[in-house]
Amino acid sequence: MTAPARKVAVLGATGSIGASALDVIARHPEALRASVLAAGGRVDALLALCERHRPEHAVIADERGFAALRDGLRERGLSTQAHCGDQALVELVGSDACDTVVAAIVGAAGLTSTLAAARAGKRLLLANKESLVLAGELLMDAAAQAGACIVPIDSEHNAIFQCLPDAHAHAGLKRILLTASGGPFRGRTRSDLTDVTPEQAVAHPKWSMGPKISVDSATLMNKGLEVIEAHHLFGVGGERIQVLVHPQSLVHSLVEFVDGSTLAQLGLPDMRTALAVGFGWPQRIDSGVAGLDLLAHGRLDFERPDLDAFPCLRLAFEALAAGGTAPAVLNAANEVAVSAFLQRRIGFLAIPALVEDTLAALPSQPASSLASLRDADQRARRHAEQAIVQRA
Ligand code: NAD
Ligand code: MG
Questions:
Q1: CA of 171 to the centre of ligand 1 (A)
Q2: Does ligand 1 have an atom closer than 6 angstroms to the CB of 181?
Q3: 275 C-alpha vs ligand 1 centroid, how far in Å?
Q4: Which protein family is it in (predicted)?
Q5: pLDDT tens digits for 219-231?
Q6: pLDDT at 119
Q7: At 1, is the pLDDT very low, low, confident or very high (cuts 50, 70, 90)?
Q8: In order of start, what are the domains of the chain with their CATH numbers?
Q9: Please, what is the average pLDDT of the chain?
């Protein structure tokens, strides 16, 4: 008898990671089934996915979309049940509607459902890095207590996960080398960046991703968030994490052991590999991604990141060192600043300036509870919004 199919909840189903996850799921109809699909506000896109993947449940975060979702499912003759709002999502994630959760909502909005998956002991394919930055200790503790297996769905952390298969490997770990593509503005000086547009910022040279993470890649805040993410996932301090710019984006990260060995994971820049690792682990399953032809690529380059042109990376290291509420403040100010940049309310260089200003205005406090972290998140959002209004 074969094992029953894994029932997968895809949160952020209409996004870039959501699409990659559904692509891998559809390749394994015997082993994987999309049982819950959740999205923010795009009802039409969610309905199209329901038609294709036939989940038992569909959830739209924005309550104004509920009637359109329910009626659209009925018109299509689908038996999928419609739901709306955060609470419905949390209940489904914790129920036996799924045993595996792909947490791919963008931003702090993903924290509640990600935490619910950890607390319910689900296999957690964790793309929503902002939830780790905001509440990493709480999330890791919840997962450990409930026995939830977290597989990171960030190419770098997925690479490290593959290089550190067990506790023995962790024990001999000396440091982590996190690679970064450098983003679309690699090689530019700070003054070259004054007038860059949202279109230029989201045109990533190697990866196709949602708008928020694309801007984060252009400022190097994405790598900063990933340093904090690596700290929580693998239990290493910031002083043992080095960032290397690697423009080819083929080496997804490396780990160095006390004996002088360095292990790396390589592959084409396509998130379906990480997702297939998450679904199949410890087994390997087809992802649809071709293997790597190193002769065709020829060379692998590594450079030091330019912290003068891209201060967000420095700010993230500082927030990690400060601890407490500082990473939550960093993340919240960045979310507000990136959204304002995408709406053309502020320039590109205002993103690090706003984050730095907010961190200075709200000094780190002990982060004893989820409530204190949420409070820091809200205060940082208000501060950054006010600073944007004052600039205008
Ligand atoms: P995206 O913008 O393409 O998709 C975001 C998804 O979240 C959409 O389905 C949207 O409907 C949903 N969403 C937004 N707000 C919501 C809310 N309040 N409630 C419920 N759903 C909501 O983003 P993406 O590129 O797929 O990234 C998703 C997450 O994965 C981010 O945290 C990002 O940092 C991380 N990540 C992405 C990649 C990548 O290659 N795209 C790589 C590594 C990590
Ligand atoms: Mg990454």
A1: 33
A2: no
A3: 14
A4: Belongs to the DXR family.
A5: 999 999 999 999 9
A6: 98
A7: low
A8: 6-152 (3.40.50.720), 154-207+220-270+290-306 (no CATH), 323-392 (1.10.1740.10)
A9: 97
The reply to whether ligand 1 has any atom less than 6 angstroms from the CB of 127 is yes
pLDDT at 2 over 80: no
Q: Is the CB of 207 under 6 A from ligand 1?
A: yes
Could you tell me if the CB of 14 is within 6 A of ligand 1? yes
Pocket perturbation via mutation, ligand 1, pick of 83, 155, 213, 273 by most ligand atoms within 8 A of CB: 213
Residue 19 Cα to ligand 2 midpoint, Å, equals 17
Cβ partners under 8 Å of residue 18, min gap 6: 10, 11, 12, 39, 49, 102, 104
Q: Ligand 1 within 6 A of 109 CB?
A: yes
> How much is the pLDDT for 3?
81
The CA–CA distances, whole Å, from 293 to 163, 204, 266, 298 equal: 21, 22, 11, 9
Nearest-CA residue for atom 25 of ligand 1: 210
Which ligand 1 atom is at minimum distance from the Cα of 17? Answer: 26
Give the Cα separation of 302 and 365 in Å (integer): 37
Token pair of 33 as six digits: 């089934």
- What is the radius of gyration, based on Cα positions, of the chain? 20
Q: Give tens-digit pLDDT for 245-268.
A: 999 999 999 999 999 999 999 999
CA distance 364 to 367: 9
pLDDT-based confidence at 4, cuts 50/70/90? Answer: confident
In short, whether 154's Cβ falls inside 6 Å of ligand 1 is yes
Residue with CA at minimum distance from ligand 1 atom 42: 154
Q: What is the pLDDT of residues 305-329, one digit of tens each?
A: 999 999 999 999 999 999 999 999 9
What is the residue whose two structure tokens read 């509440």? 135
pLDDT at residue 391, as a whole number = 87
pLDDT in tens, 30-82: 999 999 999 999 999 999 999 999 999 999 999 999 999 999 999 999 999 99
Burial 359-387 (b: 16+ CB within 10 A, else e): beebebbebeebeebbebbebbbebbbeb
Q: Where are the beta strands (DSSP E) in 110-172?
A: 123-126, 150-152
Residue that has been written with the tokens 């609470």 in this structure: 87
From the alpha carbon of 271, which atom of ligand 1 is closest?
40
